[in-house]
Amino acid sequence: MIEIVSETRCIECDICVKVCPANVFDATEAVPVIARQDDCQTCYLCEIYCPTDALYVAEHADGPTGIRESEVEERGLFGIYARELGWKRGKPGGSEYDPTHRIRVAQV
Description:
Layout: E1 2-5, H1 15-19, E2 25-26, E3 33-34, H2 45-49, E4 55-57, H3 69-74, H4 80-84, H5 101-107
Antiparallel strand pairs: 1-4, 2-3
């Protein structure tokens, strides 16, 4: 379940709003808001597509966990799903290839 949109990491690109199949987020003039957390399907698309690793999705959560952003930061959990898949941030090519790069760039 989506838990956090980091105000310090977010660049307000709204990619998470666009890729979420459950329409969990609302776009604002600033950082997107988790408006319908209970609708989150824990698909991780928002976390995968986020270019700045500003989102945290709790793996085994049936409801909000109450985790704080500082704890997610301290534990290195921002962007962890993409890293576990072996994806890295950056442009295509070499060992830093990110399979979502073209999609993310096209969304901006």
